[in-house]
Amino acid sequence: MSNRCPILGPRCELCNCSGSGCQSQFPGLKVEWPTLKGVSGLQAKATIESDNPRVTAFIYREGVYLPSNNCCNRVVLYVRADDCPNGPVLNRPIVG
């Protein structure tokens, strides 16, 4: 896996939901990972993609501006800029 940031993935599949609001689109799969806040970015990415194979986790340095699109195939992880992608996840990871 790359040791550079950002770590990206597929194009955005737009939707009108995020987090638990997307659960109907992912029956039986996780859409939120509150326990991954503080975990290594690469470890969180692996866990998220294992728990929900229909999403890809993107790792960004903290402070990067992203458009406010809700993408149902993405989970955004922010990590410290000086330790990307290995630093601890700073946000609460959710689909959208």
Automatic annotation (TrEMBL):
Classification via Pfam families: potato_inhibit
Chloroplast among keywords: no
Keywords per UniProt: Protease inhibitor, Serine protease inhibitor
Highest taxon of the lineage: Eukaryota
Family, similarity comment: Belongs to the protease inhibitor I13 (potato type I serine protease inhibitor) family.
Full protein name: Inhibitor of trypsin and hageman factor-like
Organism: Camelina sativa (False flax)
